[in-house]
Amino acid sequence: MSLPAWITFFICAAAVFIHYMQVRNTRFLLFAIPALLALLIIPMLLAWMSRRTLNKAAQENVSKAKLYKIGKVTPAMTGQVVSIKGHVKKISFRWLNRPHFHVEDSTGRIRVIMFTAPDDNIREGDPVDILGIVIKNIFKRGTPAISAVSVKKNE
Predict the structure, then answer these.
(1) What whole-number distance in Å separates Cα of residue 67 and Cα of residue 83?
(2) CA neighbor of 131 nearest in space, from 98, 101, 96
(3) Among 11, 13, 98, 114, which is most exposed with the fewest C-beta within 10 angstroms?
(4) Whose CA is closest to 111, among 97, 127, 95, 99?
């Protein structure tokens, strides 16, 4: 779950506790406790569904992917399925559960965007294998990025 989801849950749980302590109405808890559970379960369920969809997409696209050096990935390749290998130099937006990995090899550096956290716990410096689709980098015009369907540690 993302940091904003946890913050929302704890704020709502505190509000429920404070309200209950003031009114002492147990009927209120019949609605509040299921709502708090929904605040926990729904984001976890959505993350699980996203991860399952990305795993299925990875299985479908692995045969189409061609291995490239990072320096050879260009904006002209937008829409192509690629596979790259490199080391993670920086991780952004992990707290949103939408990590952006800055991956580097001997030929260059590229931003790899995921729309859910990967199965592996990836840290800066880890060697990784990435499967994804080349997209335009919205953070730096004129450079490509990869929308990843799979980011795995390369042991």
Answers:
(1) 5
(2) 101
(3) 11
(4) 99
